[in-house]
Amino acid sequence: MKLPLLSLLVFLPLLGAGLLWLLPARTARWLTAASMLATLALGVAALVAYQPAGARFQLLEQASWIASLNVHYRLGVDGLSILFLPATALLFLGSLVACWNVVQTSARLHYSLLLLLQTAILGIFCALDTVLFFVFWELTLVPLYFLLGRWGVSSSSPQAAARYFLLMLAGGIPLLLAFVLLAASQPVPTFDLTVLLDAQLPRSTQTAVFLLCLLGFGVKVPLVPLHTWLPQFALAAPGSLTALLLGLKLGAFGLIRFAVPLAPAAAQDMHWLLAGLGTVAILYGAVGMLAQTNLRVGLAYASICHVGLAVLGLASYTAQGAQGAVSLLLSFSVATGGAFLLLEFLRQRTGSTDLHALGGAAKTMPLLATGFLICGLAGVGMPGTSSFPGEFLLIIAALHSHTGAGMAALFGLSIAAGGFLALYRKAFFGPVTRPEVSQAQDLRPREWAVLVALIVMIVAIGIYPGPWIEIVRPAAEAWATGLGR
Amino acid sequence: MNGPLGSLSEVFWYEQSGLPLLLLLQLLPLFGAAVVFAFKERSTAVLAGKLFALAELLLAIVVVSRLQPTSAALQLAERFAPLAYHVGVDGVSLIFVLVAALLTFLMTLYGMSRGMISPGRLFAVLLLAEAGLVGMLVTLNVAWFAAFSALELWAVVYLLRRWASSHAETQALARFVQYQAFGWGLFAAGCVVLGWGHAEAHAGRWSFDLFDLIGAVPVGKFQTAAFYLLFYGLAVRTPLFPLHGWLPNMAQHGLIAVAPALMVGVKVGIYGMFRFVLPLTPVAVEYWQPYVVGFAGAGVFFTAALAFQQTNLRRLLAFAVVSHTSLLVIGVFSLHEAGIQGAMLLAANFGLAATGMWFIVGFVFRRTGTTELHELSGLFERIPFLAIAFLGFGLAIVGMPGTPGFDAAHLILEAAIDQFGALLTVATALGNVAAAGFLLWAFQRAFLSQAKSGAYDVDRTLPMEYVVCGIALAAMLAIGFFTEPWLHLTESASQAAAARFAR
Asked: Structural domain tally of chain B?
């Protein structure tokens, strides 16, 4: 029998979470780190086992789950999702190490929730059954709610947690409806993604499914005007959590994996809607960023802007667009994740990421400032960083399919780059006015190690993107071909 | 309604088992009540009470194992003509029986850990109430159903009088008795109309047996009258908006966990609608379906809005119960196989989850002496397990994946799309999100907020509390992730119920 690699990968963190409660509390942190390292190893193993030129879905696993509803436990990966597995494992490990000393109270509970979140997110990337996917999708909410509400960094954290939870729960309704509609449209109701991808659906069903998915995933992406939770979330969440949630763009992944390929004709009819939402998000995010006085909120707006670019490129419905979108999302897990971790370091030192409380931070914390600049530049798609290949592909795709929107996107991206540099200048340059800043220590070795690892990845992928892009390419081509049916 | 779809069939007990299991199932708690009562307040009484509750739970599991779930017939049937005694079960009734037995067992454990006065008497009454519940769930005779219902209500009234936890209980008790007596009276009147209809059709021979009545359903206005009497009688019991007035007061002033759990943990009202109202008044059900569903849909939101106004955790839970009951009624009255099946599973899920929440409120009350939300704070730091369990039960009520609520709500949604279109479905689902909203809000205020200065010294979680909440939570998660056997158990019974309305 073959080794169920994906199941191991998905449930290893959960196993770790269980183990935490059997061993003494003081080992919790190390046990979590060990579990995350093992998960990373399995993620890399899955990547090695994956054949880019092989079948569309690989490493398949299947077991009967709820037979009378024809729901199965079905896992598998393709080129669009495989790279997210090591990226997720890496980001979790990074944020654990980065926030090594932060958690002082109920450490076991904190780490087991973090591991539960990891299981849920890995499950989202691996699930090939819509119900299974939905279970993992909603499962993320419980640990997020607790992590945000109980270990948040602002007094409004519980409110932010409840708001996030309720919005996402409401966003789940259209998704569930879409999946039920899809299942009911088949002669034998099925939730099997591989079957649904090949099914011919009537136009009206497709339209309903597409719009419902767009609504459901749009809350998570977030697309303007469903983005209102994000700034508050960025302020209230502990740094590690912001890095995870804004680094891993689950909503955009949902659009690529479900919304577009499950309703190809409707998606193509409504290309203007997707492209329009993307363009609005780019411009809104860029302009919103200019108005911010807090680095974390500023980065949250930057993230709205960049995910908008991924959505716009996706709306070209070409292999290039899909390839670019996946590459960009992957790059974000490193760049945005890293930037938020650095802001967490900054917040621990100065007590704030507000511009009023900073100024001249580069003088006392040169390493932190350099690291933040590199991550930030990667975020705005500077050539030579990991985001550039994806961004380039996306802009070409967008200019081909929606020339006007593509031009607007270019414009928006330049504003965003300017916005980032303006925020950066105010926070890190100029005279030091605050005692918190003048007494701040630069990065400690542990933080430094996380940073170096991230920067190496950003630069390495930026300079030599070939192998990564090649893993995504066949799957992206299959994705685009699937839309032509 | 005399066609093959409308008719009922039964399989007698001697074909399926060596013992009349259903008779045992009903007599065991009665016998237990007598034994516990005889022991008075000795410590053996407490032990005996627990053992009888456990034995009943095991017996219920044995009964489930004897059932043939693929058959739509009522099984393990027993008849004794002189008393008009007629019992039989299908998958749906057994789900409810299991919930009743499990909850009673948990209540005996809970009663211990709360340190109640005169636990012996309490356990005797509890077992008596269980006998009433089980009797209602297995009988196939509407008059017996009404009689068992009276027995159970009497037990609850006795509990409220003797073990009430606050001094404002008199008013709450009076309200409770008024409502329940009225509801019971309506149901009894409905039974009379049905029996009369049978007498008209069969030369003056009265009968209240489901098998007889189904062949002689009243026609025209009489059927409408019977429908309304039975439906509203059960709606008071359930309780369905706007007939829920007794619950919040009772919840706030009465005995904390046991009495509400007995009344709303096992949703006999919903079961009664499934077992008697749907088959016996089919034409009226179809005619009045839009009104019932419309009211229930409004009820989901109205009670959710009321829940947001509450300042007391116990009242808030009461409104949560009323809100989700409306969802169950929508499921049953979708008259769709998936909707009915979903409603039955959801009823069991709600029962378990709501009872778990009542238990935790009881544990909190024992520590703090209050359930006022503005007086509670920071409990998470002291009792994290209970806090997480509370949220877990809350999520089950909302139908979170991984709890039994998910597949059930999923089924109801499927049926609602099919029968009422997307609009009502989305509205109902949003009502569910509203429920999530107020439960989270309460959770935050009581458990997550910063502990106020000079806050009470809260005891850590006790072993018995771990056991009670752990069992309930484990049962929920196990059913949630392995729904298949339960779907299998309820499938053919739900199909049979919906087949009457196939268009």
From this structure: 1
